[in-house]
């Protein structure tokens, strides 16, 4: 068993994970599409657990950053506030080959215009 630790707003979160699970997760996250989906799932969770986002970002960092430099910069970014944190996270993700973006919520758009197809929404974005 491994203990994974993340800093969230001046408090530490320890989580026990098996080595085989963590190895399999990091291996799967080496695919940037998998990493993007993983982070999206954490961010868009119905009942979000804020302490999971720093853990997920660390997992993605381990998978995509071969130099290990992004882990240290992530700690600094997560301590920032407001727009500085958002722009810092966007730059950090860009360094890993990912990007932070905002899209139209398909369910919201469909409720406003039920005749509009999801494909039309995606093409407009």
Describe the fold and architecture.
By secondary structure, this protein is mainly α. The protein has one domain (about 1-100). It contains seven helices and two strands, in the order ββααααααα. The protein has helices spanning about 20-30, 30-45, 50-65, 70-80, 80-95, 105-110, 120-125; strands spanning about 1-10, 10-15. The protein has a two-stranded antiparallel sheet with strand order 1-2. Strand 1 and strand 2 form a beta hairpin. The longest helix has 14 residues, at about 80-95. It is globular. About 10% of the residues are buried. The model has no long low-confidence stretch (mean pLDDT about 80).
Major β-sheet annotation: 2 strands, antiparallel
How far the N terminus sits from the C terminus, by CA atoms, comes to 43 Å
Shape: globular
Number of extended strands: 2
Helix/strand class:
mainly alpha
Rounded to an integer in angstroms, the radius of gyration calculated over CA atoms is: 17 Å
């Amino acid at each position: 068993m491994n203990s994974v630790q993340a800093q969230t707003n001046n408090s530490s979160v320890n989580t026990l994970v098996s080595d085989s699970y963590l190895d399999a997760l990091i291996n799967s996250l080496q695919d940037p599409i998998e990493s993007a989906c993983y982070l999206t799932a954490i961010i868009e969770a119905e009942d979000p657990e804020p302490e999971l986002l720093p853990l997920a970002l660390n997992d993605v960092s381990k998978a995509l950053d071969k130099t290990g430099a992004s882990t240290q910069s992530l700690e600094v970014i997560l301590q920032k506030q407001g727009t500085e944190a958002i722009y810092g996270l966007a730059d950090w993700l860009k360094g890993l080959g990912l990007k932070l973006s905002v899209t139209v919520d398909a369910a919201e758009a469909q409720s406003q215009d039920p005749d509009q197809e999801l494909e039309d929404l995606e093409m407009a974005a």
